[in-house]
Amino acid sequence: MQNVREEKKQLRQRMLTRRRGLPASAVLAGSAQIAAHLRDWPIYRRAGTVMLYLAMADEPQTEAMIEDARTAGKTVCVPMLRAEYGMMDAARIDGPDDLITGKLGLRMPDPAKAQLVSPGAIDLVVVPGVAFDAAGRRLGMGAGYYDRFLPQAERACRLGLAWSFQVAGAVPQGLYDVTMHYLLTEDGIISCE
After folding, report:
1. Which fold is adopted by the domain 2-191?
2. What pTM does this model have?
């Protein structure tokens, strides 16, 4: 277990260094490509309830995806971190006015007004990651929020979202790490099944 933890730490460090070095122009262009791939994907088009995340500056940006899903009449939810470390809920958003700066400096729904969405009602979860591999293994930031949440969304398709360089040869996997069904990068959609 110690070996897996150390491998994850090293891979996380390498990927975050590279991701944080991306120029804003590359983030903007790559995010537009990613949004187009998602918009054309049949699984996304059929999904009635979609969970996305609110991206950090160096991650693939999700605002266009959120807006497209809302325009298409889908129920859109995003993570809302609980006070309890490592735990989160899905909360519906109808627009940017529903958001505040919350825990860890991340944008999230205002807990005072949040409308929670049952994880079992979600058709598609778009999952951020520091690294993925072709088998769908995921390396996150290390807090386990998604690994605790995703088993509750048992019928949802899990789509890992990252830059193409973040798809590694192999990602070390721990006992509770949840795998993805598909990956989405600026190069397109990859099936992990």
Report:
1. Rossmann fold (3.40.50)
2. 0.95
